[in-house]
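Cross-check.
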Amino acid sequence: MKRQRLSPEQAFAAMSIFLERYRTRTHDGDLSALLGDIQINERDSRPLDPAAWSDWLDAIEEALHRTEEFVAARR
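Predicted model, tokenized:
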């Protein structure tokens, strides 16, 4: 994924998507478990749970797609 800057709205949407998918996948809203999964590994600067990184990237892509659809619909 190329490096890009998200607007505050896009970043918030990505966070919301990420959290909703986490809750759906785990059937749990346990914040402690989530925080453990996304804790940053100092060796590679990625989350301790490798799946969390790909989940985050997917959430960003969806948030960007939703924004594009919203902008297109307003034209």
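The helical segments are 8-26, 31-38, 50-74. The CA atoms of residues 38 and 47 lie 5 Å apart. Passed to J.P. for a second look.
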